[in-house]
Amino acid sequence: MAESDGQERTEEATGKRKQEAREKGQVPRSRELSTVAALMAAAVVFLSIGDRMMRALVAGMQGGLSLSRQQAFDPKTIAATLSAEVTHVVWALTPFFVVMVVVAIVAAVVLGGLSFSSDALTFKWDKLDPIKGMGRMFSWRGVVEMLKGLAKFALVGVAALILLKSWGSEFLGLGGEPLRQGLAHMGNLLEWSFLILSATLIVVAAMDVPFQLWDHRRQLRMTKQEVREEHKETDGSPEVKGRIRRMQMAMAQRRMMAEVPKADVVVTNPSHYAVALRYDQDKGDAPLVVAKGADFMALKIRTVAQENDVPVLMAPPLARALYHSTELEQRIPVGLYRAVAMVLAYVYHLRQGPVYGRDGGVTMPDLPIPDDLRRDD
Q1: What phi and psi, each to the nearest 5 degrees, are found at residue 68?
Q2: Is the pTM of this model over 0.70?
């Protein structure tokens, strides 16, 4: 349980650890459940169609042993008869084989699900190490397996004694019955005995299933250091994540500043906020926010706008409303249509005159801003 560095495996396995274990074929399995399921299924099949299978086997033997002397020395007749009888017997036993295969597969995957791994098929030389083998034999898992074996022996033994006490007279009386009746009676007693003895092992399987699930979780537990290392591998170290985030922000800012020269107007606070708008008259859509920023970023937007002859208008209430209510590459809200329309109309008017307003000295304070979009900060 203890690691070489003194840490214990106290943390539950992460999703990645469980997936890696599944890929290696390490999933919970209960051999006791598979054994009980197979025995119970066989007992039920014998009780259901055992007499039919027995008749098919007897018919196959009779068909093979009832040949005349001439037929027995004819290779073609022998081959045809053998093929027919074998086919008849196989078809009679097919339901039994199908049920056993299905039950074996379902019982094997009911705990850990269907899993195939080539790693589980790889030959491991350490399995041949006698020292390690002795260690496994005397480990606590070996003790558990020994206790399960003793429990199965005790349960089956007690059940067998009870059956002998209950049906002993019937078994002893089989010798006095007619042959066919005695065989049928014996078959019925053996089928029910097989079912009851198999059912006693359900107790062992009921204890083994939760134990296997617990032991599987225990084996996959991790130390705190392993959990931290996995998080680093999955999410990246904080330093790398911070550097990536800074690079992404820088790239986004460069893209945003490249859109400022294409804007129709920049609305400012005048110094705290700056929002660049673009309006396509041909499409007729609402104006689009192509850049926005506060403080230093607002200064950069104003500087780029002035360098590229983009009008800069001071409209503090509108600038604050646009900054807080609209994200980049989004259309302005309906409530600001009228105010922005007045700004654009003023800009288009400036373009017709000698003063273009690109120095940022024009102020438009009296604009209709809805109360739900108005910001005072």
Answers
A1: -75, 170
A2: no
